[in-house]
Design goal:
By secondary structure, the chain is of the alpha+beta class. It contains 7 helices and 16 strands. A hairpin with a 3-residue loop joins β1 and β2. α3 (147-154) crosses α4 (156-178) and α5 packs antiparallel against α6. The protein is globular, with a radius of gyration of 19 Å. The structure holds ligand Q0Z. Ligand Q0Z is lined by residues 9-11, 14-16, 24, 26, 68, 81-84, 86, 192, 202-203.
Length: 287
């Protein structure tokens, strides 16, 4: 770890350090969580896949919205970032009905104030993508809110800008992904504001940890879809009859290898680059 880096925060699978007054270091580990529990077994290079994908998207979306990326380190798992004033709202864009969106729709017919047509089934494509804000609740779980509540948290004008940027990012990424056989069902953005008051995309972007990626091949609405990356791990954990309480089970080598292969496959499909080329020189994703 860099000499002067001061540890600021731990996420489930990432660490955040301060480099100086203006710069942060985001380090992605190889830890994996499933059913909200971190497993004792790591997936080799998972942090590199996620970091490489984030950097890939940051490099290609800076014309939509500026982002916090300053440098991708040669370890392939660390991003030097501009320190922002983060907005107190998570910005989820959904093009498909899944997760808490499906749950809210089933219970109320709406998601975050968006009234949806009747008769939709789980994993259905929505008539158009929707922005569904959430706040970090004390439980650690996000709590969905509507646009009016989001506008109260960040200001109406800023919220309008956030919605428009989030929809543009989703449209760009979903078109890119679907052309490569991957459905981007939904994705979570975290945005902040820089010293000049400019809206800036922060955190990680459009990775399998912040998004639902589904293989387009075999997409079948009417139930949950297999996750592009975590399905082997989930299926293995389910097969044990694990009660989903911490600690989670150790995962055997074949499940680790299969899971790593799926992360690497997602990286290669989305970036069009060999993952080995990324390992040899991470800067290739910025091209
Ligand atoms: C991101 C998080 C992680 C724990 C704060 N550019 C930024 N400026 C200010 N704050 C953040 C960022 Cl990215 C920021 N998090 C999330 C990441 C570990 C928490 F790696 N928290």
């Amino acid at each position: 770890m860099p000499e002067a880096a001061v540890h600021l925060a731990s996420g489930k699978v990432r660490e955040l350090y301060a480099l100086d007054g203006e710069r942060l270091l985001l380090v992605a580990s190889d830890r994996i969580s499933t059913f909200d529990v971190i497993l004792p077994t790591e997936i080799p290079d998972k942090g590199r896949v996620l970091t490489g994908l984030s950097a890939f998207w940051f490099a290609r979306t800076s014309g939509i919205v500026p982002n916090h990326l300053l440098a991708l380190r040669d370890d392939g798992r660390s991003l030097e970032c501009r320190r922002l004033e983060m907005l107190p709202v998570e910005v989820v864009v959904r093009g498909y009905l899944s997760g808490s969106g499906w749950k809210d729709y089933r219970e109320t017919g709406s998601v975050c104030g968006h009234a949806l047509p009747p008769g939709l089934v789980e994993s259905d494509r929505l008539p158009e993508p929707i922005v569904t804000p959430a706040t970090k609740a004390v439980s650690g779980h996000d709590e969905n809110i509507d646009a009016r509540a989001a506008a109260e948290l960040v200001g109406a004008e800023r919220w309008a800008e956030v919605e428009s940027v989030a929809l543009a990012l989703y449209a760009f990424a979903t078109e890119h992904a679907e052309a490569r056989g991957i459905i981007l069902a939904d994705t979570k953005f975290e945005l902040g504001v820089d010293q000049a008051g400019t809206l800036v995309l922060g955190d990680e972007a459009l990775t399998p940890d912040s998004s639902r990626f589904w293989p387009a091949d075999g997409y079948a609405p009417g139930g949950p879809q297999p996750s592009y990356d975590k399905q082997y791990v989930r299926d293995y954990c389910e097969s044990l009859g694990w009660d989903k309480a911490s600690p989670g089970p150790e995962v055997p080598a074949d499940v680790v290898a299969g899971t790593r292969a799926r992360y690497v496959e997602a990286f290669e499909l989305l970036t069009g680059l060999a993952f080995d080329a990324y390992l040899a020189d991470p800067q290739v994703v910025l091209g």
